[in-house]
Design goal:
It is built from six helices and 38 strands. The chain folds into three domains: 39-206, Immunoglobulin-like (Sandwich); 213-368, Copper type II, ascorbate-dependent monooxygenase, N-terminal domain (Jelly Rolls); 371-608, Jelly Rolls. With 614 residues, the protein is mainly beta. The strands form eight sheets. Strands 1, 5, 6, 7, 8, 11 and 12 form a seven-stranded antiparallel β-sheet that branches. The N and C termini lie far apart (96 Å). A hairpin with a 5-residue loop joins strand 7 (120-127) and strand 8 (133-135). It is a single-pass type II membrane protein. Keywords: Catecholamine biosynthesis, Copper, Cytoplasmic vesicle, Disulfide bond, Glycoprotein, Membrane, Metal-binding, Monooxygenase, Oxidoreductase, Signal-anchor, Transmembrane, Transmembrane helix, Vitamin C. Belongs to the copper type II ascorbate-dependent monooxygenase family.
Length: 614
């Protein structure tokens, strides 16, 4: 068979050869052109019509322990956009920045800066359930500027809070889990990237911050640093360091009007969060201590230092009190002993690093009109509240009932201006709502991406009243995950036990310091008896051993967990309406046990506030 016609000329063959060669070149060039929708960084030119950030970048946080990445941002509530600036100290072949539900590398919303070996590209991307990265068909990260400066390589970009893209993360109030990664070699194609194969990490921030300007401090304000005493940080991943700070003797009453963090230069990426607690005034002397909070040899009196004065976490800005209120420090009824607690997160196991980080308190002798107070809401620290093992989602709710608020709140009500949520390691979400007259009136605070490793206070603006007809009700609902646990998790103070707490900051201060609940213990014993009989165990030891032991002895299956959930949602509760002296308010005995089904209905079955009759 002939392939060529014998009449085909050499000229025709030459034309066919060069045509095929040209087609091959087009294919090769096309394969190295910018991926669809990605921005070729080198071709980015300044655009005068492009909106620049409305303000300087007031919020910033180091992302990695070495400080190679720093994220700064500003919020435009008018445009519902966030402007972000990423500084890369030493750019190699690219970086990855993204957001996911709890810091997972899978199913994440990403932006990627990468180079193919010849060109650099910037694009909106996403990862699948195995960490494989793909360019997003809808590009929602708008690159404004990319520039090399003396301090590093800077990327300036913006993104809407919500993009209506199902693959994008919705930026909302509460914790945002930021993931990051470094590219150490060129990528011929972004689709060849798998996040599990590069160096990555996670950081947590509050993206959406109030856009109100800070108030002016009084002219006679003074400063007090409560800081670690030049501590040598242990070369371990997690350390909680405790230090007892003594206030001057006979310190007169002052008002704390502001506080902020004081971080030792160079340790910004290691000091994770800091808290200052006031010790109980009933303890006349607290011994000096500087060491691990987990040391079993630490003085037992440190356990009586639990009244929160100040709390800071990485990325948080200064905390200001309202102009009419301040937190009392000194004077009668206060303690001169403070406990500083610093959490060091040192995943690189750096050794020999010294630290003197802590909290700077700004206080004034010119007392404001109101003393501010801190009230604990949620669940009592008791093992009668428990979470079954192997649970993807389990809810516990704590109540501050109308009987307590009617008794303890002043006739003029109180103003809540800030809130701080708290759980231990199994906590995944916290929500506190205000119910008035049978309606869900307002969300006090909510964080459905909550992390025990990032517990920053959030500013609020809420009025609570004492009403003789109804009274205000506060319900705090916590979400837990125990899929990694084979034993039940009970309530308590230990890190492997659980809490469900919201510390609300308010004024004027009242004697009400704790407004919490737990399930009635008599009904819990009926639960133990029923479950044991159901599983064929007629020798119930209910009441003969501790509640913790009774929970651990149960046969945990799906039925056992479902019945416990039903118990917590239907059984009567016992209220703790405590004064600052730890004694109960004089509430009638029958008022301390409630059947809260209708209150729960306002929260769980009628989230839109449908009218209910209590």
């Amino acid at each position: 068979m002939r392939i060529f016609n014998k009449n085909l000329r050499l000229q025709d063959i030459t034309i066919m050869y060069f045509t095929a060669l040209a087609a091959l070149m087009v294919i090769l060039v096309a394969s190295y052109q910018a991926p669809n929708n990605a921005v070729e960084v080198s071709s980015l030119k300044p655009n005068p019509s492009r909106l620049l950030p409305p303000l300087p970048m007031p919020f910033r946080v180091p992302l990695d322990p070495r400080g190679e990445l720093q994220l700064a941002w500003n919020v435009s509530y008018t445009n519902q956009e966030i402007y972000m600036e990423l500084r890369v100290a030493e750019l190699r072949h690219g970086v990855v920045l993204g957001m996911s539900d709890r810091g997972e590398l899978t199913n994440a919303d990403l932006l990627v800066l990468w180079d193919s070996g010849t060109q650099s590209y910037f694009g909106d991307a996403w990862s699948d359930s195995k960490g494989h990265v793909s360019l997003d068909s809808q590009q929602d990260y708008d690159l404004i500027e990319a520039k090399q400066k003396a301090e590093g390589y800077y990327l300036l970009f913006k993104r809407p809070f919500s993009t209506c893209d199902p693959r994008d993360y919705v930026i909302e109030e509460g914790t945002v889990h930021i993931i990051y990664g470094f590219l150490d070699k060129p990528l011929a194609s972004l689709e060849k990237l798998n996040l599990s194969e590069i160096r990555t990490g996670v950081q947590r921030v509050l993206m959406l911050r109030p856009d109100t300007p800070p108030p002016t401090l009084p002219p006679d304000v003074q400063m007090l640093d409560v800081v670690a005493p030049n501590v040598s940080m242990p070369n371990q991943e997690t350390t909680y360091w405790c230090y007892i700070h003594n206030l001057p003797e006979n310190l007169p009453k002052n008002h704390i009007v502001m506080y902020e963090s004081v971080i030792t230069p160079g340790n910004e990426a290691i000091v994770h969060h800091i808290e200052v607690f006031e010790c109980s005034p009933d303890i006349p002397a607290v011994p000096g201590y500087s060491g691990s909070c987990d040391d079993k040899m630490k003085p037992k009196k440190l356990n009586f230092c639990r009244h929160v004065l100040a709390a800071w976490a990485m990325g948080a800005e200064a905390f200001y009190y309202p102009p009419d209120a301040g937190l009392a420090m000194g004077g009668p009824g206060s303690s001169r002993f403070l406990r500083l607690e610093v959490h060091y997160h040192n995943p690189l196991l750096i050794s020999g690093r010294r630290d003197s980080s802590g909290i700077r308190l700004y206080y004034t002798p010119s007392l404001r009109r109101y003393d501010a107070g801190i009230m604990e809401l949620g669940l009592v620290y008791t093992p009668v509240m428990a979470i079954p093992p192997k649970q993807h989602t389990f809810y516990l709710s704590g109540y501050c009932t109308s009987k307590c608020t009617q008794t303890a709140l002043p006739s003029g009500g109180i103003y809540v201006f800030a809130s701080q949520l708290h759980t231990h390691l199994a906590g995944r979400g916290v929500r506190t709502i205000l119910v008035r007259g049978g309606k869900e009136l307002e969300v006090v605070q909510e964080d459905q991406h909550f992390s025990t490793h990032y517990q920053v206070g959030d500013r609020r603006a809420l009025f609570m009243q004492r009403n003789s007809t109804f009274g205000d009700v506060l319900i705090t609902k916590c979400t837990y995950n125990t899929e990694d646990r084979s034993e039940p998790t009970v309530g308590g103070f230990g890190i492997m036990e659980e809490m469900c707490v919201n510390y609300i900051h308010y004024y004027p201060r009242t004697q009400l310091e704790l407004c919490k609940s737990h399930v009635d213990q008599g009904y819990l014993q009926k639960y133990f008896s029923f479950i044991n009989r159901f599983h064929g165990n007629d020798q119930c030891v209910c009441g003969e051993v501790s509640v913790t032991e009774q929970f651990s002895q149960l046969e945990w299956d799906e039925f056992t967990g479902e019945v416990l959930d039903s118990l917590f949602n239907t059984a009567p509760i016992s209220m703790h309406c405590n004064q600052s002296t730890a004694s109960l308010f004089p509430v009638s005995p029958q008022s301390r046990t409630h059947t809260p089904d209708k209150i729960r209905a306002a929260y769980e079955r009628n989230p839109q506030g449908t009218q209910l009759q209590f």
